Amino acid sequence: MRCFWDERQRAHAPAAEFFNGKLHTAAEHQGRVDAILAAIGPTEAPADFGIEPLLRVHTQEYIDLLRDAHAEWLAAGREGDAFPYTFPIVGRRPLDLSRIDARLGQHSIDTSTPIGPRTWTACYWSAQTALAGLAAVLEGERSAFAFTRPPGHHAGRDYFGGYSYLNHATVCAEAALAAGKRRVAILDVDYHHGNGTQDIVAKREDLFFASIHADPSTDYPFFWGHADESGGNVLNLPLPRGTDWSGYAPALARGLDWIEKSAPDLLIVSYGADTHEADPISHFRLKTSDYAPMARRIVSLGLPTLIVMEGGYAVEALGANIAEFLSGL
Which of 168, 161, 276 is nearest to 220 (CA)? Predict the structure, then answer.
């Protein structure tokens, strides 16, 4: 299988993240990169597909913010990474605000996703890496793996959060439609719900989204991903903490059956290894040996398949988990 990665994705190096009332060492760190690269072997660097595919999903204002936020943060007399801290939770409306603090709050959902001096560089090349994987599939590969880092599924059209800045799955879905595909399905198997993906694709007739994730009544992102949000082109399958393969496999089968009935001609998988039993910020109990059967069930649909990387923070097990998943493809 062809795997894609760009070394400029290392440029995002957050020093810390803020949650549960204090600063913590960032979970989305360079150790993840080394573990994954060691597991997947040789990779191909992406071509530069430009900014246009990103603008099919994200607003120009939002792209400008990601690119300029850290420089504006420093110009305002701040130090370190740029953090949002004030959010328009009620009455969110477009306002012409110039102060960087306000602009960060307008376009984010949490305080665990800082913007550093080279975050935009990493985000841009992460999106290009996803697009390179898509190009391989559109050219005839049955599947391809894009090591996208930072991840993407929590990013909405004009907001970041959950370590995510650009939504790679939907950027690729829109690019596939522009290239002539009629219907594209996105399957999210990360521990956390892909809220940004759902927001972007909801009520579309050419994009379909199925997500298997931790019950948002107990886990991030809390405000999206409940079962009663399902309908039309969206299917949410929340599962309780402690779910192992015996509970996960039926949900996966249900999600894939739903996707098959949607009759897509391309599948994009948002793959997160944070469903593993050792993950430090998640609470499912999947084992490394469960990822190959997960992958085999996914490819049994017989669809051209692009895999984009999302979460997974048990660094010692991360490489093995991804290698096992890819072996099933």
Answer: 161
Which amino acid type is present at position 144? A
Active site residue 154: yes
In angstroms, the Cα distances linking 151 to 203, 287, 311 are 24, 22, 7
Phi first, then psi: give them for residue 80, nearest 5 degrees. Answer: 70, -155
CATH number of the domain where residue 176 is located: 3.40.800.20
> Domain range for residue 167?
2-15+27-58+116-327
Asked if residue 40 has pLDDT above 70, the reply is yes
pLDDT of residue 92: 66
pLDDT the model gives residue 19: 82
Report yes or no on 84 lying in a domain: no
Distances (CA, A) of 280 to 110, 219, 236, 285: 19, 13, 24, 12
At position 90, the amino acid (one-letter code) is V
How many folded domains does the chain comprise? 1
**Any domain includes 105:** no
Tokens standing for 236?
């949410």
User: In which band, very low, low, confident or very high, does the pLDDT at 89 lie, cut at 50, 70 and 90?
Assistant: low
Q: Is residue 111 part of a domain?
A: no
Token pair 């477009």 is at which residue?
94
Flag whether 154 is in a domain.
yes
Beta bridge partners of 104: none
- In the set 12, 58, 107, 154, the catalytic residue is 154
Question: In the predicted model, what is the mean pLDDT of residues 203-211?
Answer: 98
What DSSP character marks residue 9? G
pLDDT of residue 142: 98
Q: String of b and e for 57-77 (b: at least 16 CB within 10 Å)? A: bbeeebbebbbebbebbeeee
Quote the CA–CA distance of 24 and 119 in Å, as a whole number. Answer: 19
